[in-house]
Design a protein that fits this description.
Length: 172
């Protein structure tokens, strides 16, 4: 029962304090690694949740929850993950409907983009870790993935799947 409560509180906290599924990975890493799961299990969870279709944040919550507490853990983690954004979106939708004609709303949203990019870079660094970049294979995989995403416009789930399959070969 303690693990279920910890799962609920962890995902409630992460989803109250972060702004998106991708940005929440860094805080979830801090909150779960060493308490709920190992670093390797967390990287595995992020990888699986990124490859599957649908919301990464919910899939990550369910994966972590299932690892910690089976089906009840997955349900509790999912509830903790969806409760804050659902309530906040209902409130924001009502508020923004009333303020949609204000010009500062668009400027506010444009100001969020650089901060989100910085959060995503920080999250990537935390997930891979300092030791994860040693040697040429991770650097080649990272640069190849970036090239596939930016230049060739390959869908992110396919890039992740290909990188995972190459990881099997390169990191034996």
């Amino acid at each position: 029962m303690d693990n279920l409560w910890l799962l609920f509180v962890t995902f409630l906290k992460v989803n109250l304090l972060t702004t998106s599924g991708s940005a929440s990975v860094g805080l979830l890493y801090t909150e779960s690694v060493g308490k709920l799961m190992s670093r390797e299990e967390f990287v595995e969870a992020v990888g699986y949740s990124s490859v599957l279709p649908g919301s990464d944040a919910l899939q990550l919550a369910m994966f972590v929850g299932y690892r910690v507490g089976g089906v009840p853990g997955a349900l509790v983690a999912c509830l903790g993950a969806i409760l804050p954004p659902t309530l906040i979106m209902l409130i924001l939708a009502a508020l923004l409907t009333r303020l949609r004609s204000e010009s500062w709303i668009g400027s506010f949203v444009k100001g969020l983009a650089p901060a989100l990019a910085a959060l995503l870079c920080m999250t990537a660094y935390q997930v891979v870790g300092e030791k994860g970049w040693q040697g040429w294979p991770p650097i080649v995989l990272g640069l190849g993935s970036l090239l596939a995403l930016v230049v060739f416009k390959v869908p992110p789930p396919l890039v992740l799947l290909a990188a995972g399959l190459l990881g099997i070969v390169l990191f034996r």
